[in-house]
Every structure is written in C-alpha cells, then in structure tokens.
Amino acid sequence: VMGITKLTTFEMENALEET
C-alpha cells in the first residue's frame, strides 16, 4: 500500500513541476 501512495505522490509532484 505504501508503494502506491509513494507513486501517487511522485506523479503529483511531477505534474506540478511540469505546469
């Protein structure tokens, strides 16, 4: 479960940086 949460956070940060 923790892995999924970490992945979500990474995707979220990546999207923020792209913006």
TrEMBL record:
The protein's name: Uncharacterized protein
Species, as recorded: Nymphaea colorata (pocket water lily)
